[in-house]
Amino acid sequence: MYVAVKGGERAIDNAHAWLAEERRGDISVPELSVDQIREQMTLAVNRVMAEGSLYDPELAALAIKQSRGDLIEAIFLIRAYRTTLPRFGGSHPVDTAAMDCDRRVSATFKDAPGGQVLGPTFDYTHRLLDFQLAADGQVGEVQKTEPNTGETPHIMGFLDREGLIQTEPEGAEAPDDLTRSPLELPASRALRLQALTRGDEGFLLSMAYSTQRGYARNHAFVAELRIGTVAVEMDIPELGFTIDIGEITLTECETVNQFMGSKTEPPQFTRGYGLVFGMTERKAISMALVDRALRWKELGEDNLGAPAQDEEFVLYHADNIQATGFLEHIKLPHYVDFQSELELVRKLRRNVQAAGQDESKGPSGGSFSGKMKEGVGS
Question: Which Pfam families match (predicted)?
Answer without folding.
Answer: PhnI (PF05861)
